[in-house]
Amino acid sequence: MPAIEILGITKSYTVGFFRNKLRTALQPLNLTVAEGETFGFLGPNGAGKTTTLKILMGIVFPTSGEARILGHHFHDPEIKKKVGFLPEQPYFYDYLSAPELLDYYAQLSGVAKEQRRKRIPEMLARVGLPDVGKMQLRKFSKGMLQRVGIAQAIIHDPKIVFLDEPMSGLDPIGRREIRELILGLKQEGRTVFFSTHILSDAEALCDRVGVIHKGVLRGIGVVEDLKSQNADKSEIVWHGAHALNAVKEMLEQTHVTGETVRAVVQTTNLDAVLEKLRRERARLLSVTPLHGTLEDYFVAHTSEKETVQR
Amino acid sequence: MISRLSAITFNTFREAVRDRVLYNLILFVLLLVATAPLFGQISIGLDRLILINVGLSAMSLFGIVIAILVGIGLVSKEIDKKTLYTILSRPVRRWEFIAGKYLGLVMTLAANACLMAAGFYLALLVTAHGFQRADAGLFVAIYFIILQFCIMTAITLLFSSFSTPIFSAIFAFALFVIGTFAEDLRNFAALSHGPARWLVTAVAYMVPNFSALNVISQVAHDVPVSGSLILYNTLYAVLYSAAATSAAVLIFERRNLK
After folding, report:
1. Which of A105, A109, A108, A187 is nearest to A148 (CA)?
2. Measured between CB atoms, which of A86, A89, A108 is closest to B90?
3. A37/A222 Cα distance (integer angstroms)
4. Does A18 have pLDDT greater than 90?
5. Are A161 and A3 in contact (CB under 8 A)?
6. What's the predicted TM-score (pTM) here?
7. Does A60 touch chain B (CB under 8 A)?
C-alpha cells in the first residue's frame, strides 16, 4: 500500500478586485510515494510545493481531485494521528516553553498523559534541546525553533512526516543538524515527504524526487537516474599533445599540461575520438563519464530562471 | 474529542493569562474600583450607590473590551502566524478548534470577572465598613455581566472567522452599542407601521439584547431581580452564543486558509 497517493489534485484561486480572474496554482497532480521512502518535492519559489502540502494537511481545499494517505481519505481525522507536519518557517506559541508546546500538540494527537510525560524529554533530547527547561519559545533562535518544529512533528510517533522547506533560512550548522534529524527519521523507516528548493539537501537525503514548476509536475524519479539523464559527456585524459590537432574539432574543452591533455567530449563522439588517439599513438590515461547533477536536471525542467541554492 | 477540546480551551486561557495587555486592563479596573470611594465623598450619602454603578459598569465595559480585543485575534492570529497549520494537520476538527477557542476566552473572561468582582467587593467593604444583605443581589448583576461576555465573545468570533481584525473589532463594538439599546429598538419597532415595522422588528430581535442583561441600576437600588429573568437571560445567552458560534463554525469549515 502506498503511503501517499495524490490523485489528480488541482487548485485554482480567484483573483482580482471582483474575484473574476482564475489563477491556477496546481494542474492535475498525480503522485505516489511508497512507505518508508524519503521523497523530495523540488521546485522554485511559487511552483506549487506549499499549496500541495497545505492541501494534503487539510489547510486549503483542492478544487478537484483527492488524496489518500495510508489508504485512507486524506481528511480522515483518524489518519492524521499517523501524520506529522512541519510548516515552512514555523512560528509556535511563543509564550509556551518547549515541553509545554510538545505536551499541547501531543494531547491534540491523542497521546495519553503517561506517554506524554515519558516522550517529551526523550524528544527534546533527540532534537538536541535537553536543557531548555521552562524557557519560553520567544527566546529561542531560529535553529532551535526549527528543531522544536521537528519535535512537534514526530511527538506522536507518526508513520509519515511532511516537512515544508525544513532547511529554509538556516545557517550551515543548522541545516546540517536538521539534515541529520531527517536522516534519523529515514533510518527509523518513516516515510518522509519534504519540499525544498535546496538541491544539495534533496541529493543527500532523498530516494526519489519530483520536480514541480508552475503547478505542473515536470519530472519524477530516483535521484541517480535523473542525474544520469544529463550524463552525456565524458572526460578523456591522454599523454601525447601531438594528437590534439587530430581530435580538436570533436572536443568541447581542453587543458594541456606539458604532454598531458585533459579534454571533455560528447559521449556520442567518444568512440571516434578514442579511435583517432589510437591512430596517433597517444597513450590513453583515463576515460571518465561526467555525472549530471540534480541541478542540471532541475534547471532543464524549470524553463524560467530561478535562484537555485547549492 | 474532549481531550482535544480541553487542550485548545486551556491553551487559549493560558495565552490570555500570559498576555500583559490583559493584566494592564485588570489593573486599570481595580484602580477604578479602588478610587470609587472618592466619588462617594463628593456625593454625600450616595457613596455605595455610586460605587456599585461605577464598579459594575467598569467591570462590564472592560470585560467587553477584553472580549473584543482578544476575540478578534482568536482565529486571525492563528492563521497569520501559521500556528493553525500545525493544529489542523492533527486529528482536530475545525469545529473543535472554534469551540475550544470560544470556551478558552469565556473561561478567561469569567476568571477576570471573578478577580474584578473580588476587587469590587473589597472596595464595597472599605466604603460601607461591612456588607449588607442586599449586597448578595449584586452577584446576579455580575452573573449577567458574565453572560454578556459569553455573547460578545461568540459575536467577535463570528466576525473574526471571515473578516480582518480591525473590521471585526468595529462590527463587534457597533453591535455591542446597538445591543445596549435593544429594548429601545424593540419599542421603536412596536411604534412603526407597514414594512418598516417588520424590518425594525427583525433587526431588534437579531441584535443581542444587552439591555435585558444590564440590571446594575436595579441592584444598586436594592431592587431584587426575579428568578424568571435569571432563567430567561441564561437561556437567551446560551442560545444566542450557540447560534453565533455555529455560524462561525459554518464559515470556518469552508474557509481556505492561505
Report:
1. A105
2. A108
3. 11
4. no
5. no
6. 0.82
7. yes
Residue ranges of the domains in chain B?
2-254
Is ipTM beyond 0.85?
Answer: no
Note whether B85 contacts A85, CB cutoff 8 Å. Answer: yes
Distance from CA of B77 to the nearest CA of A (A): 11
pLDDT of residue B230: 92
Query: Which residues of B make CB contacts under 8 Å with A?
Result: 3-4, 7-8, 11, 14-15, 18-19, 81-93, 254, 256-258
What pLDDT, on a 0 to 100 scale, did the predictor assign at position B204? 85
Flag if B7 and A107 touch (Cβ within 8 Å): yes
Cell of B160: 473574526
Answer whether B81 sits within 8 Å of A91, measured CB to CB: yes
Q: Which three cell numbers stand for residue A305?
A: 530562471
Mean pLDDT of B208-221: 86
Nearest-CA neighbor of A309 among A193, A197, A232? A197
pLDDT surpassing 50 at residue A113: yes
Q: Nearest Cα to A236, choosing from A219, A253, A258?
A: A253
Which alpha helices (H) appear in B72-193, and where do they start and end?
Answer: 73-80, 83-88, 94-128, 138-160, 165-180, 182-191
Helix/strand/coil (H/E/C) assignment for every residue in B44-99 = CCCHHHHHHHHHHHHHHHHHHHHHHHHHCHHHHHHHHCCHHHHHHCCCCCHHHHHH
Q: Name the grid cell of B36.
A: 470609587
B20 to chain A: nearest residue by CA?
A95
Per-residue pLDDT band at A308 (split at 50, 70, 90): very low
Q: What percent of chain B has pLDDT over 70?
A: 93
